[in-house]
Design a protein that fits this description.
Length: 227
């Protein structure tokens, strides 16, 4: 899961990014509102953690602009203000949840898990589609029909996670490269091809009917026609 964190307090941002990465999240951090908005509009993130007070553009404005463009990515708003009116403003701007500073790390992680469950239908640390189940804690792929399982690499897991979250849609190679490797990566499209091959082999290993279909000249789609 890839998280966008927009926060201008340097020490706080560094600490939370490190904590989130230890929790196996992919995290991109930006320190001003304009860069944050551009990142949100890329629509490659699963969750956005957005501070209210930012240079360039505040969090309320970012949320409003994102929602006006049809971006439905869950937004968790952070603020030092605890007044009810500020919370209402944040929620009316398009935020899905609101967390007041200072907060405990455990509470932040719990809010992220709650947004994940709401977005991807994750229940008891699993994510399912067709006849496959992903364990989000152990990165294990299982086939529901025969009980076979296999451990995925981090990239293989994130590819399947992304495909499941967008089941029924064709994802372009560019979308996949941005989602899995990020803006700053030098990953080429052949990285996508290589890891798609690895992931397909894992699906074949557990004898899943769920398949990753290649759409010529466009990208990939997750399908399970027999379940």
């Amino acid at each position: 899961m890839r998280i966008l964190f927009v926060e201008d307090e340097k020490r706080m941002a560094q600490a939370l990014c490190e904590i989130l990465r230890l929790e196996k999240y992919e995290v991109d951090h930006y320190a001003n509102g304009l860069d944050g908005l551009a990142a949100v509009e890329s629509n490659i993130y699963d969750i956005v953690i957005l501070d209210v007070m930012l240079p360039g553009m505040n969090g309320y404005e970012i949320a409003k602009k994102a929602r006006s463009k049809g971006i439905a990515t869950p937004i968790l708003m952070l603020t030092a203000k605890a007044e009810l009116d500020d919370k209402v403003t944040g929620l009316d701007s398009g935020a899905d949840d609101y967390l007041t500073k200072p907060f405990m790390t455990k509470e932040l992680l719990a809010r992220i898990r709650a947004l994940s469950r709401r977005t991807f239908g994750i229940t008891d640390s699993t994510l399912s589609y067709g006849d496959i189940t992903l364990d989000t804690t152990t990165l294990t792929l299982s086939c529901a029909t025969n009980g076979q399982s296999v451990r995925l690499s981090e990239k293989e897991y994130r590819i399947l996670e992304y495909l499941i979250a967008n089941a029924g849609q064709i994802l372009t190679r560019e979308q996949i490269a941005l989602k899995i490797w990020g803006f700053d990566s030098k990953a080429e499209y052949n990285n996508v091809e290589v890891y798609m091959s690895f992931t397909r082999k894992k699906l074949a290993f557990v004898e899943a009917k769920t398949e990753i279909k290649a759409v010529r000249g466009i990208g990939y789609e997750l399908r399970c026609d027999d379940v």
